[in-house]
Amino acid sequence: MSINILEIESYSEKFANAILTHGEEVLKAKVWDESKDLKTSIEKKLNLIVEMNYDELISIKILDNYKDEDSIIKAKDKNYIIRGKIIQFVELKNDIWIDLYLQKGAEFISILKSQTKGKEVLVEQGLEIEVTNLMFFPSKNQY
Fold first, then answer.
1. pTM of the predicted model, to two decimals?
2. Nearest to residue 73, comparing CAs of 38, 111, 116, 23?
3. Residue 62 near residue 50 (C-beta atoms within 8 A)
4. For 24-122, where are the E strands, in sequence order?
5. DSSP line for 108-135
């Protein structure tokens, strides 16, 4: 599963402010569209494989008894809730990336271990994060 653009509300710089679906969830978010190609994806009803980023990590919660079908991206007020499974840690020079995989899609998102506020996180563990300004970046050549 991926995202499906339902409507473009407006453009701001290189992003489209779009209404989209991820699974059964409908939400508004920014989608990278520097070349204004998203209109084609709407016309063709394409499912877009995306990478994600965000501005700020607001909260993090370890999910006991997490199941893959619990993965989700949904809007919460002006923020976004993302649930997924930790699939790996990637060592960086001064920190560690935590890759969070969403079973319901081909998507994953990464956070830094320094952002976990001292919580002990493990591979295969479920994690829920709340973020601001979620942005989607479609993989190239999907239109």
1. 0.86
2. 23
3. no
4. 25-32, 50-53, 56-63, 72-76, 79-91, 96-101, 108-112
5. EEEEEGGGGTT----TT-EEEEEEES-E
> How far, CA to CA in Å, does 36 sit from each of 9, 52, 53, 69, 90?
13, 18, 20, 33, 34
pLDDT tens digits along 17-69: 999 998 889 999 999 887 777 777 777 777 888 888 999 999 999 999 999 88
Q: Which two tokens stand for residue 40?
A: 């084609």
The closest of 128, 133, 139 to 86, measured between CA atoms, is: 128
What count of residues does the chain have? 143
As to burial, measured by CB atoms within 10 angstroms (0-12 exposed, 13-18 middle, 19+ buried), residue 67 is exposed
The stretches of the chain forming alpha helices (DSSP H) are 38-43
- State the first-to-last Cα distance of the chain, in angstroms, to the nearest integer: 17
Interatomic CA distance for residues 95 and 36, integer angstroms: 36
